[in-house]
Design a protein that fits this description.
Blueprint lengths: L1 H14 L11 E17 L5 E18 L4 E17 L5 E23 L2 E22 L2 E23 L4 E7 L2 E13 L2 E14 L9 E8 L4
Antiparallel strand pairs: 1-2, 1-10, 2-3, 3-4, 4-5, 5-6, 6-7, 6-8, 7-10, 8-9
Amino acid sequence: MIKKYISIAAFLLVSLHIFAQDYNGKMMVSLTIDGSSLNRLDEDEDDEYKNVYSVNYYLQLKSGYFISNNKLVGISLGYRRTGGNDDFPDDTTHALLNENAYEIGPFFKEYFRLVNNLYFTLYISPYYKYSSLKNSFPDGEYSTYHSYRENDIYISAIPGLSFEINRKLSFDFEIGFFNAYMKFRKVWDSPVDPEMHRQFVYGASTSLNDFGLNDLFLGFTYRFNIK
């Protein structure tokens, strides 16, 4: 599998050309979207049926300035919402998930022409992310829950493709990611341990380990002041 990705990367590098259009000094805005939902009936270990529902969506807005024909810098804002619940036929809810995440940071993006109106892109961004999660487990007279709040610092590199529909509008694909991160987390677990605990997590991750449809992001880019 690794050899396959190396071969694809080598092919892309050999195929790169100079960006064809004159975008130097132009402004752009871009919207990236991703999402999924699930609603199914599952049978648990006690032979009881439950309705499993989940929703996950992501929105990212970018605004940038072309510092050359094929390079741009700018700022991005992102929001991710994740939610879900497990409902049983007796109308009781045995698990409830609620997560929100917000992102902001500068970015650099470079375009390399492959063929005609198709470009390979490389997006690099150091950004700040704030997220909050609460996983509740209602059970009779009281509810247990696990929750945390995070302040994270990421450095992300994202390869992609951009298809130029016309000089003003492009259709964009972001394909996977490579991340390095530091996470500063506050955790609560109740009623087992209601006291707040602090955690520090750092590391790196990539979507190449388990690539799926959720690692494909679709978007549009609009360029201003172009005739």
